[in-house]
Amino acid sequence: MDSIRIRGGKPLNGKIEISGAKNAALPLMVASLLTEETLTLSNLPHVADISTLISLLCQHGAAAVMDGQMTGSGSCSGRSLSITAAEITNTEAPYDIVRKMRAGALVMGPLLARVGRARVSLPGGCAIGTRPMNLHISGLEQMGAKIDIVGGYMEAIAPNGLKGAEIRFEPASVGATENLLMAACLAEGTTVLENAAREPEITDLVQLLRQMGADIEGDGTDRLVINGVRKLHGTQYRVMPDRIETGTYAIAAAITGGTIELTNTSADLIKSVIEVLIEAGAEVVETETGLIVSRTGPTLNGVDLMTLPYPGYPTDMQAQMMALMTIANGAAMITETIFENRFMHVPELARLGANITVHGHSALVRGVDQLVGAPVMATDLRASVSLVLAGLAATGETVINRVYHLDRGYERLEEKLAACGADIERITGS
Ligand code: EPZ
Fold first, then answer.
1. Mutation probe of ligand 1 site: the residue of 28, 131, 181 with most atoms within 8 A of C-beta
2. Taking Cα atoms as reference points, which of 9, 8, 12 lies closest to residue 282?
3. What are the 10-residue block averages of pLDDT along the chain, 430 residues in total?
4. Chain centroid, CA 247 distance in Å
5. Which ligand 1 atom is nearest residue 338's CA?
6. Distant-in-sequence, close-in-space partners of 88: CB < 8 Å, separation ≥ 6
7. By 3-state DSSP, what share of the chain in percent is helix, strand and coil, each rounded to 5?
8. pTM (predicted TM-score)
9. Fewer beta carbons within 10 angstroms: which end of the chain, N or C?
């Protein structure tokens, strides 16, 4: 298993080009199942989850071509992917894929809408929480599907097709909104999704579906109205920039006391993160292609924050901001409201000398003068990158083990950070 070695304590200065958003690209790719024509996506990130989803779509019968090269072997080059699901030959999404990548379960709505059946593995729990599927299931049932849980699989049929329905999500769920949105595009009649998630990745999906011929109103709000159409068609679409990668590298500048220009992105995508960064003492300047983040002052201030659905502070940026707060003056109370178990990074940050006490859903971070490098263990994607950030700020050597989590969602992380002066290398394991 690979690990990453960092010799920290150096300010990072330079430019980082932000990749396309993994969490936008995955549902956009799944939308290819809604049409027999070709969907071409550009600005795709090179991360492991994208390759995993390509294999899933291919085993449903889709053909995938990456920049002119067939991707059957899982190896891929280029950033443009054409997917053609001319025929759905298999409606099963197996446990082996869905347990590794929960976004695999998004095929359920599109498969039901297109061919009236789907057998999709339950994703199971994961490091950050139990993550149930009840909202996906009950929404599709309200649209006329019959779903049984058999042997760990959701066995769904819609013998009379899907019908429009009024569906309310509680709590708001990104994945359930995406699943139901896609299903509703080909359902008969009108579907209303209430308390729908408003994350920018949902807006990206609405825009793509509209380009494919869907009739959707209300994007950017918590009420989506979808009038079903008989068919969708192929199109070309550019994946939005990754707002979580943007925020992560913004914190890399602040935590190391350097200046990093982030390009191919937009400050608008991470307003809530920028607010905290500025309150903590960083400077942020918007540019035409993104933003410049710097911290020239010697110290940072502790800032309280609470994760919330968009436009609130993102849960996917909680661990990274906690890393920053470990070296801020005073204390910061960080409250996680989206997932019940998303403090797995706390004991690992403590190994670097951080002073953090967890009380239920809140973590009280008391800033220390200096973190000191140590071997640590990555537990999930965002926890892993918080350890990278802490390692960049720490003196001495930090070795982060189990970095396959990072490879799921950060493209060429070591290369991007090294280009800004980080002393970081991957140690290839057996
Ligand atoms: C998406 O997960 C993201 N994943 C997550 O990013 C992100 O943390 C999360 O949204 C919240 O922003 C992708 O986009 C691929 P949810 P998702 O359904 O859709 C509860 C990362 O690091 N819930 O919005 O699975 C759930 O338990 C990942 O990139 C139900 O109760 O999240 C949670 O408390 C991790 N029943 C809340 O809703 C359901 O049926 C929000 O989860 C579904 C969800």
1. 131
2. 12
3. 95 97 98 98 94 95 81 58 97 94 96 98 80 96 97 96 98 98 98 98 98 97 98 98 98 98 98 98 98 94 98 98 98 96 96 97 98 94 97 98 91 96 92
4. 12
5. 34
6. 33, 60, 61, 111, 114, 115
7. 35, 25, 40
8. 0.96
9. C
